[in-house]
Amino acid sequence: MKLFLKNKVNTEVLSHKKLQKIAEGVLKLKKQPTHHISLSLYFVDAREIQSINSEYRHKDKATDVITFRLLDTASGKILNKENFPLDYEPRRGLYLGEIFICLEVAEKQAIEMGHSVQREVAELFVHGMLHILGHDHEEPAEAENMKKFEEAMYPLLDKLVG
Questions:
Q1: Contact, 45 vs 103, CB < 8 A?
Q2: Do the Cβ atoms of 94 and 71 come closer than 8 Å?
Q3: Nearest to residue 101, comparing CAs of 77, 71, 126?
Q4: Which helix (H) or strand (E) holds 104?
Q5: Maximum Cα–Cα distance for the chain, whole Å?
Q6: Which long-range contacts (CB under 8 A, 24 or more apart) does 58-64 make?
Q7: Which CATH number fits domain 2-161: 3.30.565.10, 3.40.50.150, 3.40.390.30, 3.30.450.40?
């Protein structure tokens, strides 16, 4: 798994290695391969995520995480060259999409939740990964299912960030 990390706020909250382990943990939880897979993760400020949110979701406010899924992963197909032949690139394998996390919002939410910023960012990354893999939370049943997978990641997050 290749994780392309772009930190636009110059504050390292979690190491690339820990983020990579989280991404691989979500892939394994969803019974997906961890090889020949890539995605991008951006850490941005409130102004940038508000701009993205306004342009793509028509909501003119800052938010915690935005995900752009590039493959039809909602189908549940195994992520491999055979199932996505037109999307496979030798250099990066299957490029799943992009996740944007706003550190300013994450910091506020961490205070509200009573845990560290590292933990909040880790949970937001899991949330974004689940969106990349086809999950949604528009309907109550979808939200409940997504929450189940998020909670299944807590032991790994406990180990990595407390």
A1: yes
A2: yes
A3: 126
A4: helix 103-113
A5: 45
A6: 62/102, 62/104, 62/105, 63/102, 63/105, 64/101, 64/102, 64/105, 64/106, 64/109, 64/124
A7: 3.40.390.30
Given a contact cutoff of 8 angstroms between Cβ atoms, the answer to whether 50 and 61 are in contact is yes
- On whether the pTM is more than 0.90, the answer is yes
CA separation, residue 79 to residues 38, 75, 82, 133 (Å): 11, 10, 8, 9
Buried b vs exposed e over 127-145: b needs ≥16 C-beta within 10 Å?
bbbbbbbebebeeeeeeee
Strands 93-102 and 88-89: antiparallel
- Phi and psi of 47, rounded to 5°? -65, -45
Measured from the Cβ of residue 4, the count of other Cβ atoms closer than 10 Å reads 13
Phi and psi dihedrals of 6, rounded to 5?
-130, 110
Give residue limits of the domains in the chain: 2-161
Write the pLDDT tens digit of every residue in 52-92. 999 999 999 999 999 999 998 877 899 999 999 999 998 88
DSSP state of 73: G
